[in-house]
Design goal:
The protein is an alpha+beta fold. It is 19% helix and 26% strand. Helix 12 runs parallel beside helix 13 and helix 16 packs antiparallel against helix 17.
C-alpha cells in the first residue's frame, strides 16, 4: 500500500512502512479549500495526516527533499510548510542554538526540547515543572543554557560531563528570582558574569550575579517586559504594555493586567508599547521610546546602536536607536491592503546579509526582508510558508529554524489510544528551511505564491468589497452577498454557551452525524435543543477555533487570538482572561465595537462578567430565593469598561451557582420593555453558561436549566413583533467538554430565525463564520484577517419565512436536583465527588487539562453510571470520524 503526500506542489509516493503508523485517508491536490476546510481542520487536529514526529524523523533522513503533508486548521487556513519538521507534544515559544551549532533548544509548554541539528531528531526532552514562561532563553560561551520558568526561576543547564547521547544536558542549578515575578527574556553580559532577566509581573529587569546566583539589583522598566537584546553598552527591553500610566490616564480599573494598571483605549484594548534602554554601566534606564502595540521580540537593527522590534498587535516593525528619538515604524503584511491579523511574533537577523526573517503568526509564514542603508523601510523579498502559528525564528550557517506553537494541531500521542486524547494534546513543530532556498529566486517566488494563497489574501480583500448597486435595487435577503446590500434581519441575538461538543448533546439525533453512545444530554434532558435543531436546522459540521475558555471567548468575541495569549499556555500566569487583561485583546477590537461604530445599538447580558452572589449564597440558596420570587442583587464585575456601559446591570454573568432560568427572567423583563417601547437594540449578546456544569446541582439539572433558558428565549422572540426581522445564533465558547466521534473540536451551533432552513446542514462553519455572518447582516466589514477569510453562513437560510412561533418545552429534570446524601453514595460516587471538589469552578475554565478531564469524567459517570466505562477513545481531536463524512473537494473554492 502507498500513501500520498504533497511535496513542492507535486504528488510523491512513499511506502506505508516509512510513515507514522497510520494511513493517510485523504489527499489534497489543490491550493486552498473553502467548503472542505472542515476536513482539513479536523485532519490538523486529528490523526488522518500524521506529521514527521521524533519517532519517525529518521525515516526521512535519506530523502533528498523533506516531505510534509498539507494540513488545514480549525481557523480555516491551509498549511503547506516548507522544509521539514520535527513535531512533539508541547507548544514551542522560543528557540536558541548552542555555540557550536550542534544543539537546537526549543522552549515549550512545560519542557525544553533538545534537537540534534546533525541528525535532525530530538535528542532529549527536559521537564520544566510548573510550566515555562512566555519567552526567554540564552546560551553562554561555556555552552550553558539559561531558561526562565513560570515558577520565578532561571534554570541553568550544562553539558553532561558523561556525554550520553540521550541526555546531553543536565540541570546544573536554579536561580531563584522575586516571588511571583514570572520571568521572561534573558540576556548575558559581554563577560558572561551577569544575567539580565525580564520580570514580567514586576515590570522590572533583574540583574543576577552568576558567581553567587543572587539578584543584585532590580531596574524598573515599562509594563510587562518580554525580551532583552544587548547591543554594546545598551540593554534594550521590550515592554508589551508600554509605559506606566499616570494618574489621569485611562486604564482598565477593574481588570489590570497581572495587577498592573495598563494604558487602554476607549475600547479597553491595551494602547501603548515602549522599548526601554538601560545603560549597562550605570544600570539605569536612560530612554524609553514609544513604539506600536505589544512590542515583543527583538533583534539587532540594521543601523549602529539600534534594534528592531516586532509589534505583534500592530502588524509592524519598529527601528529603535540607543540614543533615543522617535522610532521608525514599518508595516509588515503579505499585502498592505489587508486588515489587522498578520501579527509579527519573532525576528532574526541573517548575519552579514542585511536580511531579516520575521515570523507572521496570523499568516503562518516567515517574511524575508532586505534592510536598506538608512532608516527607510526594508523591502520584502518574499515569504516562506510555515506550520501553524510561528512564534520563534533563528538560524545557523545552513538553516533557518522556525518554532510553530500549534504546529500541525493538537494531535500528539501522549498516552495509549484507549486512554483517549483531548484538545490539550498539543503538537508543536520545529521547522527547518535551507538558507540556500531563500537565495533561490524561483523557490522563494513559489513559496511567496503559496503564502498568498494559503493566507487567503484574495478572499480577505474580497470580503471587504462593497456592493456597487444601490441598496434599493437589491432584494433583501438573510445574509447579503456583498457589504452594503440589505438584509431581512434588523436584530441579531448572539448566544454564547460553555464547553459542549456535538455528540454530547446531539449524538442521539438520527438525522445528523452523531454517535448515540456518546450522547450525554439526549432529548429527554435537552428537549428544546432538539426541537430547535429539528425546526430550524442542525449544523453537524461546526467547529470551535479555540480549545479552552481563555482563547475560546477571544475567538467568540474578537475573531482572533494574539501571540501574547498563544504563548501563555505554559500556565496562564499573567492572566486566564475572561475580559480581565487588556494585553490579551486584539487591536481589531471586539465585535460590539464594530457594530457600535457603524451606528447600531447594542446590549450585553453577562459576557465578561464575574458575578458574585450576596452573603456567599450557594446554588440551592439562590434557587429557593428565586422560586419564592424574591429579589437577589448580584455584584457585577466587567473588566472592559466600554462593555460594562452597554451591559444590563442586573443580569449576572459567570458563576455556576446562578441558574440560567434566573438569567433569562432578567433578560425577558428588559426584552418586554424594549418591545413595548419599540426600541429593541440591533445587537444583543446573551451569555448562558450553565451547560458548563459542575457547580452545585447534578449534571442533568445544569443542562436542563440551560436548555429551558434557551427555549424561553426563542419562545419570547418568536412571539414578538421582532420575529420577522430577527436571527438568533447560538454557539459554545469552546469544546473542552470532552468527546465526539468525528473530532473533539466539533461543537454546537444553532441558527434560529423565520428564514432558517430546516434539515441537516453539513457545510463547514466555525466561530469566525458566525462573527462574519453577523457583521455582514449589518453591512459591517470583517474585523480582521481571520473572520474575513471565512465563508458566510448563507446556506443556513431560505428565502421564504416561516413565521410560526416556537413554544418552549418544559424541563423533564428538576433544575435544583442535588447529589444524594453521603450515606447513600457508593464508594465510587464518593471518589468522584471528592475529585469534583478539587476542580476550580470559580473561573470560566480550568487552567489544567487534569481539571478539565476530571470534570468531564465526573459528568459522564454521574449521568451514565459510576461504573460505566468513560469513552476516552473518542475524547479530544482524534479526527477518526472524518472518513465517513463523504467530504469532497470543491474545485471552485480554490480560486486564490
Amino acid at each position: 500500500m502507498f500513501a500520498q503526500q504533497l511535496t513542492n506542489n507535486k504528488l510523491n509516493y512513499m511506502p506505508l512502512a516509512r510513515l507514522v503508523p497510520r494511513i493517510c485517508r485523504m489527499v489534497f491536490t489543490c491550493a486552498l479549500f473553502v467548503i472542505l476546510t472542515v476536513a482539513g481542520m479536523s485532519v490538523t487536529l486529528g490523526s488522518l495526516f500524521p506529521s514527521p514526529s521524533p519517532a519517525c524523523s529518521a525515516a526521512f533522513q535519506d530523502e533528498p527533499t523533506p516531505r510534509v503533508n498539507e494540513q488545514l486548521t480549525p481557523t480555516g487556513r491551509a498549511l503547506r510548510p516548507a522544509g521539514d519538521l520535527i513535531s512533539f507534544y508541547g507548544r514551542p515559544v522560543d528557540l536558541r542554538l548552542s555555540v557550536d551549532g550542534r544543539w537546537l533548544f526549543a522552549k515549550s509548554k512545560d519542557s525544553i526540547e533538545v534537537m540534534d541539528t546533525q541528525t535532525w531528531a530530538i535528542a532529549q526532552s527536559i521537564s520544566s515543572p510548573g510550566g515555562t514562561s512566555l519567552w526567554g532563553m540564552a546560551v553562554g560561551a561555556d555552552h550553558r543554557l539559561y531558561v526562565t520558568n513560570a515558577t520565578s526561576q532561571v534554570h541553568v543547564f550544562a553539558p553532561n560531563p558523561e556525554n550520553p547521547p540521550t541526555a546531553p544536558f543536565v540541570l546544573e542549578r536554579s536561580i531563584q528570582l522575586a516571588e511571583d515575578s514570572f520571568p521572561s527574556g534573558v540576556a548575558l553580559s559581554e563577560d558572561q558574569a551577569t544575567l539580565y532577566v525580564c520580570l514580567s509581573k514586576k515590570n522590572a529587569v533583574a540583574v543576577v550575579d552568576l558567581t553567587t546566583n543572587q539578584v543584585t539589583k532590580s531596574i524598573d522598566v515599562g509594563v510587562a517586559p518580554l525580551d532583552l537584546v544587548r547591543r554594546q553598552s545598551t540593554l534594550f527591553v521590550s515592554n508589551m504594555g508600554g509605559k506606566r500610566p499616570q494618574a489621569e490616564e485611562p486604564t482598565a480599573p477593574t481588570a489590570p493586567s497581572a495587577d498592573t494598571p495598563t494604558l487602554v483605549d476607549e475600547r479597553g484594548v491595551a494602547s501603548h508599547g515602549t522599548v526601554s534602554m538601560i545603560d549597562l554601566e550605570s544600570q539605569q534606564v536612560i530612554h524609553e521610546t514609544r513604539v506600536k502595540l505589544q512590542p515583543s521580540t527583538m533583534a539587532v537593527g540594521w543601523q549602529d546602536d539600534s534594534i528592531v522590534v516586532c509589534n505583534s498587535n500592530d502588524d509592524s516593525l519598529s527601528l529603535v536607536h540607543a540614543g533615543g528619538g522617535p522610532a521608525s515604524t514599518f508595516v509588515l503584511k503579505p499585502d498592505p491592503k489587508l486588515g489587522f491579523g498578520s501579527m509579527p511574533s519573532a525576528i532574526t537577523a541573517l548575519d552579514g546579509t542585511g536580511r531579516y526573517a520575521v515570523t507572521l503568526a496570523g499568516n503562518n509564514a516567515v517574511a524575508i526582508l532586505q534592510a536598506g542603508a538608512d532608516a527607510s523601510a526594508p523591502s520584502t523579498l518574499g515569504f516562506v510558508p510555515t506550520a501553524w502559528y510561528p512564534s520563534a525564528v533563528i538560524h545557523d550557517a545552513k538553516y533557518l529554524y522556525v518554532a510553530c506553537i500549534k504546529g500541525l494541531g493538537a494531535r500528539s500521542e501522549r498516552r495509549p489510544l484507549e486512554q483517549g486524547r483531548n484538545s490539550h494534546d498539543h503538537f508543536g513543530s520545529i521547522q527547518r528551511i535551507r538558507l540556500t532556498d531563500l537565495d533561490d529566486k524561483v523557490t522563494l517566488e513559489q513559496w511567496t505564491r503559496n503564502v498568498l494563497e494559503l493566507a487567503k489574501v484574495k478572499s480577505i480583500l474580497g470580503a471587504n468589497e462593497r456592493s456597487l448597486e444601490s441598496s434599493q435595487d437589491v432584494k433583501p435577503r438573510p445574509v447579503p452577498a456583498k457589504l452594503g446590500e440589505p438584509s431581512v434581519f434588523k436584530h441579531v441575538f448572539y448566544v454564547i454557551k460553555e464547553n459542549r461538543t456535538f455528540d454530547q448533546v446531539f449524538g442521539d439525533l438520527p438525522e445528523a452525524r452523531g454517535m448515540p453512545e456518546l450522547c450525554l444530554f439526549p432529548e429527554k434532558i435537552t428537549p428544546n435543543h432538539h426541537a430547535l435543531a429539528r425546526r430550524f436546522g442542525i449544523l453537524d459540521n461546526y467547529y470551535c477555533n479555540g480549545v479552552l475558555s481563555a482563547d475560546g471567548h477571544s475567538w467568540a468575541t474578537e475573531g482572533n487570538v494574539t501571540p501574547y495569549l498563544e504563548r501563555a499556555f505554559g500556565g496562564f500566569n499573567r492572566s486566564y482572561t475572561f475580559g480581565d487583561d487588556p494585553l490579551t485583546y486584539s487591536s481589531s477590537g471586539f465585535v460590539w465595537d464594530h457594530v457600535l461604530a457603524a451606528g447600531y445599538s447594542f446590549r450585553n447580558y453577562g459576557e465578561f462578567d464575574y458575578a458574585t452572589p450576596p452573603d456567599g449564597m450557594k446554588y440551592q440558596d439562590i434557587w429557593n430565593t428565586y422560586e419564592r420570587g424574591e429579589a437577589i442583587e448580584f455584584k457585577q464585575k466587567i473588566g472592559v469598561e466600554k462593555l460594562r456601559r452597554y451591559s444590563a446591570p442586573n443580569y449576572p454573568g459567570w458563576n455556576m451557582v446562578i441558574p440560567d432560568v434566573l438569567r433569562m427572567d432578567r433578560f425577558l423583563q428588559e426584552f418586554r420593555q424594549f418591545e413595548a417601547d419599540g426600541n429593541l437594540p440591533n445587537f444583543i449578546l446573551i451569555y448562558l453558561p450553565q451547560d458548563h456544569c459542575g457547580g452545585g446541582v447534578t449534571t442533568e439539572s445544569h443542562m436542563a436549566d440551560n436548555d429551558l433558558a434557551l427555549g424561553r428565549l426563542v419562545e419570547a422572540v418568536s412571539n414578538s413583533k421582532y420575529w420577522k426581522d430577527s436571527v438568533i445564533l447560538v454557539n459554545e465558547d469552546d469544546p473542552q467538554g470532552g468527546y465526539d466521534h468525528v473530532d473533539g473540536h466539533r461543537s454546537l451551533c444553532l441558527v434560529i430565525s423565520a428564514y432558517s432552513k430546516p434539515g441537516v446542514n453539513s457545510q463547514f462553519c466555525n466561530q469566525t463564520s458566525v462573527l462574519r455572518t453577523m457583521l455582514q447582516i449589518f453591512g459591517v466589514p470583517p474585523m480582521n484577517q481571520q473572520d474575513a477569510s471565512m465563508p458566510l453562513m448563507s446556506h443556513c437560510f431560505q428565502e421564504t419565512p416561516d413565521l410560526q412561533p416556537y413554544k418552549a418545552l418544559a424541563a423533564n429534570v428538576p433544575m435544583n436536583q442535588s447529589a444524594p446524601a453521603e450515606e447513600e453514595q457508593s464508594a465510587l460516587e464518593k471518589h468522584w465527588r471528592g475529585i469534583l471538589a478539587t476542580v476550580p469552578i470559580q473561573r470560566t475554565g480550568m487552567k489544567t487539562p487534569v481539571d478539565e478531564e476530571n470534570l468531564n469524567r465526573f459528568m459522564w459517570h454521574e449521568v451514565k453510571g459510576w461504573t460505566t466505562t468513560y469513552p476516552a477513545e473518542w475524547s479530544g481531536p482524534h479526527g477518526r470520524g472524518l472518513s465517513g463524512l463523504g467530504l469532497q473537494h470543491d474545485p471552485h473554492a480554490a480560486r486564490d
